[in-house]
Design brief:
alpha/beta; Rossmann fold; two-stranded antiparallel sheet; globular; binds flavin mononucleotide
Length: 205
């Protein structure tokens, strides 16, 4: 049985396609494989921006932390504990100004933690969160998987890099693209995502 962590981050609430399809994947895996599901909606409880209390506190010995550092590190520790407990992580991200929502960036700023989620080996940085399966759903108004806008995809490629940096390298990507190109494009993007997700769920079962 798996423990699944679902992380959603779109500020568009019920309209969000990345949250919708990430939820479909998480619930689909749970109904096939059983196990438990933790839902972390980063827009309901947004992580704070990181501060010097967090940056200094996270590398200080726990006994030496100031009360402010203890509180700041507690936030990050909670997110990292959720990640460590998960066998399967499902992440939803809707493009904002060519990148990821700031809520999700703030979450990565907390979970990308030296000597906790990544270390430095003889050959450079080494991710420490290994052996987990990740499903990444990215939505965007334009099309970035190919064509003229591909060089400006600072969402999916960046997320793949961030995930890989902390050891999460086994990633299936579902793109929901072209959502501002009119109703036909939206319907096609939704149909594509549904087909991709159905195939991924069959593979997961
Ligand atoms: C504030 C804002 C900024 C956006 N910026 C971009 C952008 O830079 N490029 C783009 O292709 N789409 C952009 N979009 C469109 C969203 O990426 C699109 O609506 C996508 O479906 C959002 O993901 P979601 O459905 O999960 O909320 C933006 C939307 C909003 C609300």
């Amino acid at each position: 049985m798996s423990h699944i962590l679902l992380v959603t981050s779109s500020p568009r609430g019920a309209e969000s396609l990345s949250s919708r399809f990430a939820t479909d994947i998480a619930e689909g895996i749970q109904s096939r494989l059983g196990g438990s599901l933790t839902v972390r909606d980063l827009t309901v409880n947004p992580p704070p921006h990181i501060t010097s209390a967090y940056i200094e506190g996270r590398t200080a010995s726990p006994d030496d932390r100031t009360p402010e550092q203890v509180e700041a590190v507690k936030v990050a520790q909670h997110f990292v504990d959720e990640l460590k407990a998960a066998d399967v992580i499902v992440l939803g991200s809707g493009m904002i100004n060519f990148g990821l929502p700031t809520q999700l960036k703030a979450w990565f700023d907390h979970v990308t933690w030296p000597r906790v989620t990544f270390g430095y080996g003889d050959t450079g940085p080494k991710g420490l969160l290994t052996g987990k399966k990740v499903y990444l759903v990215t939505a965007s108004g334009g099309v970035f998987s190919e064509g003229a806008w591909a060089p400006f995809d600072f969402q999916t490629n960046y997320l793949l890099h961030l995930l890989g940096f902390i050891g999460l390298t086994d990633v299936e990507v579902v793109r929901v693209e072209g959502t501002v190109l009119g109703p036909d494009a939206v319907n096609a993007a939704i149909a594509d995502a549904e087909t991709t997700i159905a195939a991924l769920l069959t593979k997961a079962a």
